[in-house]
Design goal:
The complex is a heterodimer of chains A (about 280) and B (about 230). In chain A, about 45% of the residues lie in helices and about 25% in strands. With about 280 residues, chain A is of the alpha/beta class. In chain A, strands 1, 2, 3, 4, 5, 6, 7, 8, 9 and 12 form a ten-stranded mixed sheet that branches. The radius of gyration of chain A is 22 Å and the shape is globular. About 5% of the residues of chain A have low confidence. In chain B, helix 3 packs across helix 5 and helix 5 packs across helix 8. The radius of gyration of chain B is 21 Å and the shape is globular. The chains are: A alpha/beta (about 280), B mainly alpha (about 230).
């Protein structure tokens, strides 16, 4: 009686394992799919939800998007854990290829960064000449500024912009300069709650749903240009890279079909990304 | 306050309309967490029994380590499993990263210490209580173990439910090793994190309510089974 019950309990545990495990394991084995390491801006804006079904219909290839910051995406790819990389920090991408981890880098599309903040604009960044002046106003007024602080493409750009002023805002970290160490959306949530400024890519801002009294306060400086690039991970470095479907993806997204699809993606009437592959 | 109400109604409408994407995510969450608990039970029940009923050098230290591991931060477990399964890691050749299997592995690591610790505690106390009785009976050791486990079955159900709670509510580890890939590794918790990131707090909260409802369903199911069994034995 005891033994039968124990056997039954063990059988139940084993059944739990089978139920979950059976279907899980063959999903892992499908080969006509690639892992794309990309950034949160492309995922949160809904671009991939729009593009990838189109791509799948035309080529039959499934794309598994892992959306992290640009720094983390590059690291994933350097470990060989992605087949394709699509991020937005050109110098890091070029270094990735130069170090032998990528085959070749292609421009895909661009948009721009914008400076957002509460509509009361305490640091008076509205009407600044340049983005550098705008940041300088924030610093002078010691208004709260929320930084990603996560080595993402946006974070790298933001630090470059402070640097153009000869500033190292990290010396005020924890004071008026606050690093969230999180994704763009989480950082915007924090900025809304603290009524602070933040630098964000336009796509994330347009698709972001918790704006409250926040608005774009500065935009249009050419230093806010935000270029996205795509790279196939080098199969000579990682033989398991699924080169064929990966190349299919890259060739598609820089082809006229892919580029038209990018141009066609709109949210509340606004185009989020402008294709510019050569 | 308004957002809270909206989330509540959104959750109800998601459930009523049986939203396909929601079903997919709920089903995957259940599949992964139930498998993880199943595997964890197969490891933790015997392990806990050994810790409770035998004496060997280093046993006390092992008990303390297991207790400490109950508080393992999921993010650390996620990173650990990531480094193991990464193509550059020791198990990279299997290509398991960013698959449901990787998520199950992480959850098993999180659940095993909890179930082991509770099993050990429960069996140790029972063993003290029954020690003389068991000694007076001339039965082989495995009969003693099965008798104790059988007697502790209701407490052990609670251990399994605690493990299940840890598995299904956890986000840090499955986000790292699963990658939150749509239609493949997106579960309830990572979907909630994603909606919160998009600033869609209402949707995030609504999904959270659905997750609670699912956990409630599982617990009611377990409760009704133990109640039925208890009644039959009275």
């Amino acid at each position: 009686m005891f033994n039968r019950s124990i056997m039954r309990a063990l059988g139940f545990a084993a059944a739990l394992v089978m139920v979950g495990y059976g279907p899980a394991s063959y999903a892992d084995e499908a080969t006509n799919n690639i892992t794309l390491a990309s950034t949160t801006s492309t995922q949160n804006s809904g671009l991939f939800d729009y593009l990838l079904p189109l791509f799948k219909k035309q080529t039959g290839v499934d794309v598994h998007v892992v959306a992290v910051g640009t720094g983390a995406a590059l690291k994933l790819a350097r470990n060989g854990d992605a087949d394709v990389l699509m991020v937005h920090h050109k110098t890091s991408e070029e270094k990735f290829v130069a170090d032998g981890y990528g085959v070749k880098r292609f421009d895909v599309m661009y948009n721009d960064f914008v400076l957002v903040g509460p509509d009361s604009d305490p640091a008076k960044v509205k009407g600044s000449e340049t983005i550098v002046d705008a940041l300088n106003n924030i610093k002078t007024k010691q208004s709260v500024f929320l930084s990603r602080g996560d080595d993402s493409g946006t974070n790298k750009r933001e630090l470059e912009l402070w640097k153009a002023n000869g500033d190292n805002p990290k010396s005020a970290s924890g004071d008026w300069y606050r690093e969230t160490g999180s994704g763009m959306g989480a950082t915007l949530n924090t900025a809304v709650a603290m009524q602070g400024y933040a630098l964000t890519d336009r796509a994330t801002w347009i698709s972001y749903k918790n704006k409250q009294n926040m608005e774009i306060l500065f935009e249009g400086d050419k230093r806010l240009f935000n270029q996205y690039g795509v790279i196939v991970v080098n199969p000579e470095k990682f033989p398991h890279v699924k080169v064929k479907p990966a190349e299919t993806f890259v060739n598609w997204i820089i082809s006229s079909k892919g580029q038209e699809a990018i141009a066609g993606y709109k949210l509340s009437g606004e185009q989020l990304f402008i294709p510019n592959a050569e | 306050m308004n957002d809270l109400w909206q989330a509540f109604f959104k959750a109800i409408s998601l459930v009523i309309t049986l939203d396909n994407r929601l079903l997919e995510i709920v089903f995957l969450s259940l599949r992964l967490s139930l498998s993880a608990v199943g595997i964890a039970l197969l490891i933790a029940l015997p392990f806990g029994a050994v810790l409770a009923l035998t004496k060997f050098p280093g046993r006390k230290i092992l008990v303390i380590i297991i207790n400490v591991f109950m508080g393992l931060p999921p993010v650390v477990v996620g990173l650990f499993v990531y480094l193991l399964l990464s193509r550059s890691g020791p198990f990279g050749v299997f290509g398991l990263l960013f698959t449901p299997t990787a998520m199950i592995i992480a959850q098993v690591i999180l659940v095993v210490p909890i179930v082991t610790a509770i099993t050990r505690q429960v069996l140790e106390e029972l063993h003290l209580e029954y020690d003389e009785l068991l000694r007076s009976l001339d039965v082989p050791w495995y009969r003693k173990v099965t008798a104790l486990v059988w007697d502790a079955r209701f407490s052990l159900t609670t251990a399994a439910l605690a493990g299940f709670g840890r598995a299904i509510s956890e986000v840090g580890a499955v986000m790292i090793v699963g990658g939150n890939i749509d239609h493949l590794t997106r579960v309830m918790t990572t979907a909630i994190a994603l909606e919160a990131r998009k600033g869609d707090l209402v949707m995030a909260l609504a999904l959270g309510l659905v997750l609670l409802a699912v956990a409630l369903g599982i617990n009611l199911f377990a409760y009704s089974i133990t109640e039925t069994v208890k009644r039959r034995h009275q």
